[in-house]
Write a structure and sequence with these properties.
This is Cell wall protein. Keywords: Membrane, Transmembrane, Transmembrane helix. This protein has 2 domains: 106 residues, OB fold (Dihydrolipoamide Acetyltransferase, E2P) (Beta Barrel), CATH 2.40.50.140; 76 residues, Nucleic acid-binding proteins (OB fold (Dihydrolipoamide Acetyltransferase, E2P), Beta Barrel), CATH 2.40.50. The chain is 2% helix and 49% strand. The chain has 1 helix and 17 strands. Strands 5-6-7-11-10 form a 5-stranded mixed β-barrel. The chain has a 5-stranded mixed β-barrel with strand order 12-13-14-17-16. Strands 1-2 form a two-stranded antiparallel sheet. The longest helix has 4 residues.
Length: 206
């Protein structure tokens, strides 16, 4: 992401989350000719297209405007992207959702095909997605206090959404086995309004 989060006087570059390794043991729940559609696919190395005639294009940055299914995106290095959404575009924002969930100010990572006019026709868009290794510093009913290096983060527990995997086991909605001091891989969606993270999944004991 092009957004930098201020914490403790230091800058936390959100683009680093998009270059983190995919969480181990995950399975691909859907795919297109360009690759997987689940959250892990946003962090995986680009894979060859299943159709040799199609070359994948990628874009990341902050959404400046949304206009009739076209996202105007300001990239992290000063570039500008126009991302065309279609009825076939897969959209992830904490969970699989629709294009209507994308708002100005959101960060995103998009994959698709470059059209003759330079726009990218997206087959998949991951919105505000973060994947970060943390230590649990505090546990409350609706949130976790996390440390990522020298940065303090707040992870929000989302009812009917947040799940956990313990020691490589199956995902469960039972979060009672979390302990202060545990390390956790946090997959979730950054909240631009308050810089918190809505947690989709915790992987503990890996």
């Amino acid at each position: 992401m092009g957004h930098n989060q201020e914490s403790g006087g230091r800058r936390l570059d959100r683009r680093r989350f998009l270059t983190a390794a995919a969480i181990g043991g995950a399975t691909i729940v859907g795919a297109s000719a360009l690759g997987g559609l689940d959250a892990e696919a946003a962090f995986a190395a680009p894979m060859p297209s299943l159709d040799p005639a199609i070359r994948a294009a990628f874009a990341e940055g902050r959404v400046v405007a949304v206009n009739r299914g076209v996202l105007d995106v300001a990239g992290s290095h000063g570039e500008r992207h126009l991302i065309q959404l279609t009825n076939a575009t897969s959209v992830w924002k904490l969970r699989t959702t629709t294009a209507e969930a994308i708002e100005s100010g959101d960060g995103l990572y998009a994959r698709g095909v470059t059209m003759p006019d330079g726009t990218i026709a997206a087959d998949a868009v991951w919105v505000n997605i973060v994947n970060v290794h943390c230590t649990i510093r505090g546990i409350a009913k609706d949130r976790l206090h996390l440390a990522h290096g020298n940065h303090e983060l707040v992870g929000r527990i989302v009812p009917a959404t947040t799940t956990a995997s313990y020691l490589g086991g199956a995902l469960t909605s039972d979060l009672s086995r979390m302990r202060i001091g545990q390390t956790a891989q946090v997959l979730g969606a950054w909240r631009p309004a308050d810089n918190h993270i809505d947690i989709a999944r915790l992987t503990l004991g890996h």
